[in-house]
């Protein structure tokens, strides 16, 4: 009796694994996610689900019955204070395309799927359409990609019911896809929940018919989703009581791949990558009719050509197809050209991931040639590569790299106002005559883009006598409303002993008076600090500085640009209305805004160069 009591107590304390029901396995649990839930200080804990229509809740009358929503509800039972948000990413191509889509760095997509700390992977419904061997390699590669992206990611595998699985369970067999997936889960210590098995048991026991469980054989009805919800509740209870919350997250170390053919170097090579050669008929930076592409490469000219040299085991493409799409021809390593026809059944723009060549020698050099082979429009997003391409910038210094990026852009044409240096005489003296100039950038992640432009290297090239020390003192989504309080200027500004304080970004909440407060506090303790104020650049297309843009500052209404200008004049600060020339350049570029964006808010390398080159021009005598 005492032994039974002891075992029960240890289970409650998380010192012994909870025994699994037959439809789930806890394995290594999700202790890292438990840590992040418990220590949530931001109220914004992301869980990223990657899967198919079941994940989307297709066909449900009550969207809250989605198993993803039920999973979050189960987590909240244990961590009610954590601000959990689920992001659901549905896609064609099953785990095969998932392998590419979760890879780090998506210049074309501009999306960051794996930004949370818990990956829930659900591909059973889509993976039924590919050979089992391909599915096992793709799923294992995807699991490894998630861990490569961030070694502290927790992972879960979910299997939902398909007609084929139901037939296997009726015959007393475990579906082969489940066997393979469970091998992967066991190899990597990943928890799994077999909703397919749980639902099949209910159907085979006569508690519900398959027709009432699912109207189309894949997506559950509300009645079917309620069965999944019961299973999810049991699974989450076991998952979150199996292990105690750790003191800190640990990094997962990947073992050798389970399957020899698994390749975990998937990536989407952007069409604008330096290694992609394109003929003149292509137009880059064009608006995509669908997300998540930020921009696409477009042509309506037959014969337009793309070439890519690479190493790797597989090469493919992802593009946008529509009713007017053109056919392609492609060849790898000089083989005869093969045709990739445009789909005939497309009624609206759709994303199309396609494999062009598999089982290549992953260590050898290869070349893909892709041609537009018919009338119509080609809309390229990028290349799907399980391998690598050479880094064209690898041997360049930072200055050489940003020069190379800017060389591929239209030059900026901006005439800065005379007299702009009147309130920063010491700064300009150090730039011209030499010495050390300490420059503190204060603001948010957009000021991080400003820092990322490496503009200080441009200034030191223009003013070679000066040693410019740039200090980025930043906090994401934070402006002067935050910095002005509780003497935060001490940690964010004063301790860096600046000669020049540069305040900017998009997170000041339109409050120029908060900016004034920070200026006054800094000068009260360090009277000699000079200040440069920057108006906003980048951010969401719906932000005020874009939505109500005027080339010149609107002085007839109260707006942030005008109010910042007034604060600068009254506090004797330098002022740069960067908004005007920045957005004018974007508008005149002939490219969509996404061409300059790394995601929905921030600049990519090209966007950073707009910032950096504008600052170079502004500071130049």
Short description:
35% of the residues lie in helices and 20% in strands. It folds into 3 domains: 16-241, 3-Layer(aba) Sandwich (Rossmann fold), CATH 3.40.50; 266-388, Jelly Rolls (Sandwich); 398-619, SGNH hydrolase (Rossmann fold).
Query: Largest sheet, if any?
Result: 10 strands, antiparallel
Q: Overall mean pLDDT score?
A: 92
Counting DSSP H or I runs of 4 or more residues, the number of helices is 23
Structural class: alpha/beta
Number of domains: 3
Structural notes for this entry:
The chain is of the alpha/beta class. The chain folds into three domains: 16-241, Rossmann fold, CATH 3.40.50; 266-388, Jelly Rolls; 398-619, 3-Layer(aba) Sandwich (Rossmann fold), CATH 3.40.50. It is built from 23 helices and 21 strands. Strands 7, 8, 9, 10, 11, 12, 13, 14, 15 and 16 form a ten-stranded antiparallel β-sheet that branches. Helix 19 (512-525) links the parallel strand 19 and strand 20. The protein is globular and about 85 Å long. Mean pLDDT is 92; it is low at 1-20.
Helices and strands, with pairings:
Elements: H1 2-13, E1 24-25, H2 31-38, E2 45-51, H3 53-56, H4 67-78, E3 84-90, H5 94-101, E4 118-121, H6 124-127, H7 132-149, E5 154-159, H8 163-170, H9 176-188, E6 192-194, H10 195-204, H11 210-213, H12 222-241, E7 266-270, E8 276-278, E9 283-286, E10 296-299, E11 305-321, E12 328-332, E13 338-340, E14 350-357, E15 365-372, E16 378-388, H13 398-407, H14 425-433, E17 435-443, H15 445-452, H16 455-462, E18 466-474, H17 480-483, H18 489-492, E19 500-503, H19 512-525, E20 530-534, H20 544-547, H21 560-570, E21 574-576, H22 579-588, H23 605-619
Parallel strand pairs: 2-3, 2-4, 4-5, 5-6, 17-18, 17-19, 19-20, 20-21
Antiparallel strand pairs: 1-6, 7-16, 8-11, 9-10, 10-16, 11-14, 11-15, 11-16, 12-13, 12-15
Helix pairs in contact: 4-12, 5-7, 7-9, 8-10, 10-12, 15-23, 16-23, 19-21
């Amino acid at each position: 009796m005492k032994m039974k009591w002891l075992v029960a107590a240890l289970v409650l304390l998380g010192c012994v694994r909870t025994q699994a029901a037959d439809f789930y396995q806890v394995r290594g649990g999700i202790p890292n996610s438990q840590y992040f839930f418990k220590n949530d200080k931001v109220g914004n804990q992301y869980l990223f689900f990657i899967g198919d229509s079941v994940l989307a809740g297709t066909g449900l009358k009550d969207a809250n019955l989605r198993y993803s929503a039920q999973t979050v509800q189960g987590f909240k039972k244990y961590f009610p204070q954590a601000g959990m948000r689920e992001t659901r990413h549905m896609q064609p191509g099953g785990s095969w395309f998932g392998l590419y889509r979760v890879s780090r760095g998506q210049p074309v997509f501009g999306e960051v799927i794996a930004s949370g700390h818990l990956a829930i992977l659900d591909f059973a419904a889509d993976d039924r359409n590919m050979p089992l061997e391909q599915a096992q390699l793709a799923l294992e590669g995807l699991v490894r990609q998630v861990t490569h992206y961030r070694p502290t990611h927790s992972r879960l595998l979910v299997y939902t019911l398909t007609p084929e699985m139901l037939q296997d369970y009726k015959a007393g067999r475990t579906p082969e896809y489940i066997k393979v997936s469970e091998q992967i889960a066991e190899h990597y210590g990943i928890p799994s929940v077999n909703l397919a098995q749980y639902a099949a048991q209910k159907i085979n026991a006569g508690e519900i018919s398959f027709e009432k469980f699912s109207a189309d054989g894949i997506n559950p009805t509300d009645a079917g989703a309620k069965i999944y919800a019961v299973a999810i509740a049991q699974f989450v209870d076991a998952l979150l009581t199996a292990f105690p919350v750790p003191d800190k997250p640990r990094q997962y170390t990947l073992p050798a791949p389970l399957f020899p053919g698994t390749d975990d170097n998937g990536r989407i090579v952007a069409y604008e990558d330096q290694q992609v050669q394109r003929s003149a008929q292509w137009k880059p930076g064009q608006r995509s009719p669908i997300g998540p592409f930020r921009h696409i490469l477009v042509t309506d000219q037959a014969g337009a050509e793309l070439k890519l040299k690479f190493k790797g085991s597989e090469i493919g493409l992802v593009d946008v197809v529509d009713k007017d799409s053109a056919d392609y021809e492609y060849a790898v390593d000089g083989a005869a050209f093969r045709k990739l026809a445009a789909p005939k059944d497309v009624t609206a723009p759709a994303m199309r991931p396609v494999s062009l060549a598999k089982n290549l020698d992953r260590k050898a050099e290869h070349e893909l040639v892709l041609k537009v082979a018919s009338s119509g429009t080609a809309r390229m997003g990028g290349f799907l590569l399980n391998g690598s391409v050479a880094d064209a910038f690898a041997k360049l210094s930072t200055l050489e790299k940003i020069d190379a990026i800017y060389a591929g852009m239209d030059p900026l044409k901006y005439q800065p106002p005379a007299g702009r240096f009147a309130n920063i005489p010491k700064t300009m003296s150090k730039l011209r005559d030499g010495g050390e100039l300490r420059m503190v950038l204060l603001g948010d992640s957009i000021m991080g883009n400003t820092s990322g432009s490496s503009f200080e290297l441009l200034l030191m090239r223009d003013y070679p006598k000066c040693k410019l020390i740039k200090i980025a003192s930043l906090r994401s989504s934070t402006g002067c409303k935050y910095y002005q309080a509780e003497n935060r200027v001490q940690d964010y500004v004063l301790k860096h002993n600046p000669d020049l304080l540069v305040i900017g970004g998009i997170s000041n909440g339109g409050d120029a008076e908060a900016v004034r407060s920070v200026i006054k506090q800094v000068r009260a303790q360090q009277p000699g600090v000079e200040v440069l104020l920057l108006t906003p650049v980048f951010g969401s297309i719906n932000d005020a500085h874009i939505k109500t843009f005027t080339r010149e500052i609107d002085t007839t209404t109260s707006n942030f640009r005008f109010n910042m200008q007034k604060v600068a004049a009254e506090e004797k600060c330098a002022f740069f209305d960067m908004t005007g020339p920045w957005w004018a350049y974007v508008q005149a570029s002939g490219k969509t805004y996404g061409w300059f964006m790394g995601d929905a808010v921030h600049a990519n390398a090209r966007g950073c160069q707009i910032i950096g080159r504008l600052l170079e021009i502004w500071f130049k005598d």
